[in-house]
Each structure stands twice: as C-alpha cells, then as structure tokens.
TrEMBL record:
The modification 2,3-didehydroalanine (Ser) is found at residue 149. The lineage of its organism: Bacteria, Bacillati, Actinomycetota, Actinomycetes, Candidatus Nanopelagicales. There is a cross-link at residues 148-150 (5-imidazolinone (Ala-Gly)). It comes from Candidatus Planktophila lacus. This is Histidine ammonia-lyase. It is an enzyme of class 4 (lyase). GO terms for cellular component: cytoplasm.
Amino acid sequence: MASKSNRTVTLSTSGVTFADVIDVARYGAKVELSKQSIDAINASRKYIEEYAAGGIPVYGVSTGFGALANRHIDVADRAQLQKSLIRSHAAGVGPAVEREVVRALMFLRLRTMASGRTGVRVALAQSYIDFLNHGITPVVPEFGSLGCSGDLAPLSHCALALMGEGKVHDANGVEMPTMQALDAAGIKPIELQAKEGLALINGTDGMLGMLIMACADLEQLCAVADITTAMSIEGLLGTDRVFAPDLHAPLRPQVGQAVSAANIFAMLKGSGIVASHRENDSRVQDAYSLRCAPQVAGAVRDTISYASTIAERELASAIDNPVVLPDGRVESNGNFHGAPVAYVLDFLAIAATDLGSIAERRTDRALDQHRSAGLPPFLAHDPGVDSGLMIAQYTQAGLVSENKRLATPASVDSIPSSAMQEDHVSMGWSAARKLRKVVDNLARILAIELVTAARAIELREGLSPSPATGRVVKELRKVVPGVGPDRFLSPELEAATTLVNSGSIVNAAREVVKELI
C-alpha cells in the first residue's frame, strides 16, 4: 500500500464516500461499525433466524442456489449449505488481483452488511473488519466473475478466508495459508450460519471498487493531459487563442470542455514562446491534436462525471439477494446485476483510450521535422548519430494500440450460466479489469508526451516557457535529464510515469496555476 492513512472509517446505514473506499483500499484506513449499523444488522438477523428455523421456503436460507433454487434444504443442513456454497463458488483461476482491489471489494461488501439488509450477524461483519484492520488480504484469482449474481467467485475467495481456508497475503504482502495469518493476528475463523454465505458473495463490490479507483485516477490524468497539451503547444509553436473562455462555454456549453480549455489557457499564460509568434504567424490554424484538445479531454471529464454518478448511486445501494426488508420480508431481486456499473466501466475505457490517442498524435508531430516548426528530427542532440525520442513514440503508439483493443466493450457480451437460470450476465468484472490496464497505459502515454514536450520546449532556445510549464519542466528534470546524446531511455520514461502517477506533475503546475482542476 501507499502512504498510510490515519483515518478510521465508521460504517453506518447511510453508506460511504469515494474517499472512504480509496482510503481503505489504498492507504490502509481502519474500519469500524457505528451503533446504528450494529442495531440494523441485529434487527435483520432476527428475521433470518426465524425463517431458518421454520418451513417457509426462502431462497438461500431453506433452498439451494441458482438452478437448484427449488431444492428444499432441511434445517439441520442449512449451516452446511452456506459453507458448501463458499467452497464451491471459490472457483477462480489465474494470477491474484491487486491488493487494493481485494480491499475495496471487502470493504464494499462490509458496507452492504452495515446497511442492515443482508441478515448476517454482527460477528460476520466484524470478521471482515478484523481482516481489513490487520492488513490480511485474501488471494483472489483474476478470472471467475461474470458480473452477475454479483462478483461471485472473487467474493467467495474472500469468504473462504473468513472460514480459515484458502490463502491470503499478510500485512507485509507475504502469501501464506489463511490459518497461519489468522493465528499470527489472533483472529478466529468464522462459522457461517443461515444465509451468511450467500450474503457474502451477492454484490457488485469488485467492479464497483475498481470503478471508484479508476474515476479518481482518471480525474488526475485529465489534469496531466491538460498540462502536457499546453507543453506540446509551446514546443510546437501553437497558439493559445483557441482556448480563450469566450470560445467555449458561451458557444458550446459542454462542462468538461470549458474546464480543460481553462486549464490549458491558464497553463500558457505568460509564455514567451507563445508570444514570440503571436503577431506574425502565417499559420491560420493548428492541427486538431492541439486545437481540439479541450473538446477531447473535456468529453473524457464529462464521462468520468457520469460514471461517478453511477458509482455514487451504487454506493448508496444495498446489493444482496434475497434482501431483508424493514418489515421482515425476505425478497428475491435482481439488484446484483452489474449492468449499470459495467456500462460506465466500458465508457471510461473508450474515453481514456481516445485521450491517449490524441496525446500520441502531439508527440508524433513534435518528432517529425516536417511538422514540428523547426525542431530537429526526433528532438535528437545530433540527428543521424542520435535517434533522440524516435522509439519513445513507438512505445507510445504500442500503448495506444493496446488500449484500442482493450476499449472493445465487455458489457455487450453475455454468456448463460447456471443451467440457464442465470441466462444474462453483465461481464462487469471483465470491463473493470481491462479498464485498469487502460488507465495504467494512459499514464505511460502521457508520461511520454511529458518527456517529449519538455525537450521541445528546451530546444526553443532564447524563448521562455510560461511560468506554469516551466515549473513542470523543472520538476521533470529532477528525475529525467534534458537534451543530450542518446542514453538508456527506458528508465527515464518509467521515472516520468512515476511522476505522473504520484501527482507530482499536477502539484507542480498548481504551484503556479492555483485553479487547475
């Protein structure tokens, strides 16, 4: 995990925030139940215990699951029913997903328990809290979820760990048998009771957690894209006129577009490079990759805004099947279907891919001596002897191309399961997994534009960049040297990517442009 959070997130029946999810998932914030949640959990549990002792058919309490829902389960077998459910459904395969994903998944399932709509015991919720607070993370394989009936397999691997089975990573990231980690932490495995196994796995928690983290990451990358765009405009002797406020909101009231245009305009304020050719430039218009940057980045911002709205609604939801209503009824429903989340995960992948695509076009323009307004070929120190950033653009193009493949929507697919009882699924987990890769690739794409644009700016000898872009170049130069003979380039691109992901580039720009969003 990254830097440690000193927060304690208190779960109540009213839900949690994006910041809560990210602090627990990424920064190890502690978790506790409020008295309100404890009371709500106890109230719903009372109803489940009454049903479990009786003969009324209740899905998942006195019946089998999925296509076996019509099979009556004897009272004596109902606890075993829950254990068998978890063991059989923990059927994922492949490499383990990231620690932050599993922590987000567990925290969001716990959030649903805290709503008092699942019918579990407080002891079960407390078991999840113990895992989170001790930094014990179940090993969850990447493949297994269809994004319907919840993220069944991933959640089952977490539930299996609560039972003391399977494998986990301890707080230091060491993989070990679950009981070894529990013994070291002084935690007892849980004995599942009626409905509890089902309540642990019927949720959109995995895909939702990945959506929330992607929204946060993409918001920062949009700011980075506006910064690198401004730098590319300077390096390519572009104009700042097209980013003036009166050309955006008054003419085309797209919210994100106005934000990105304002960012770029502010980043270029005071640029000696831009001023040097403002009055005598024979070019009437810049290329689209420069001129239309706010229209593209702004559309990405608006897509993030919509996706965040869907995520916030999901955070306010109690996803389980069946669900315990306040009057004691236990009703089946389809709220575990991941379609709302899956769609926006796919939307974000498409938008993020296009943001990377336009960034690569700016890089390619800066490296092409026929389109770079007088810059040396490939921004090389001694063209011919040196290749400069030629192959950095190859790498960037490869990342863009991979993102184009990953942008193919997962949610348009469906495959029937459970003997046709579950005959339409969302594939939301798959959408989330590929979005994470798209976001990672986008950070690298923007880092390459950052390196390229900084070198282009410095090659405009005798001309000064804006205070904002100059500050960003200075930040970059702490880890990536400037123009010079060819050298091992890969570590420099990785160092630039680290700067992008850490927030250092955005923070540097904000030292000058306080209002940068």
